[in-house]
Amino acid sequence: MTLFEKYSDTVMDMGKEVTGRIKGASEIAKLQYELKTEEINLTTAYKELGKKYYEEHKGTGEPDPELEEIEAVLNKIADIKANIDELTGSSTCEKCGAKIRKSDSFCPSCGAKVNNIFEDDED
Ligand SMILES: [Zn+2]
Predict the structure, then answer these.
(1) Model pTM?
(2) What is the pLDDT of residues 79-90, one digit of tens each?
(3) Sequence-separated (6 or more) residues with CB below 8 Å from residue 106
């Protein structure tokens, strides 16, 4: 084997190695993408299961820290929404969830009577 043949063999080997590495990298990227997708699917499934569990167990008085945590977060969300409504002069229909003006007596979306919490309580 001449020096040149030896050299070109080395170059060929290096080429194969690089090609192999690129193939490996794209395979890894593909697997990582698949992994991410499946992890998202898992998170979505857990979320649905959690929602179902919450719907089935809320208000049962079961001492469950997870239920209490969800309750606390829901209360926080309601508070924040109420603050936004207050600042934007809007409200939310209790029946259909549509945005309504404070001054509306009926929901323009579903026609439900608006219990306007900003006016005097009649009860
Ligand atoms: Zn409505």
Answers:
(1) 0.52
(2) 998 899 889 888
(3) 112, 113, 114
CA–CA gap between residue 61 and residue 35 (Å, rounded): 39
CA-wise closest residue to 86 among 110, 116, 113: 116
Q: Which tokens belong to 33? A: 């993408």
> Pick the residue with more confidence: 114 or 27?
27
Gap from CA of 115 to ligand 1 centroid (Å): 11
Scanning 1-123, the segments in alpha helix (DSSP H) are 3-57, 65-88
CA of 106 to the centre of ligand 1 (A): 8
The contacts found for 90-97 with CB under 8 angstroms, 24 or more apart, are 91/116, 91/117, 91/118
- Alpha-carbon distance values, 73 to 57, 87, 97, 108 (Å): 16, 21, 19, 29
Report angle CA 43, 45, 46 to the nearest 5 degrees: 65
Distance CA 96, CA 115 (A): 13
For residue 47, the CA-to-ligand 1 centroid distance in Å is 27
Ligand 1 geometric centre to CA of 60 (Å): 28
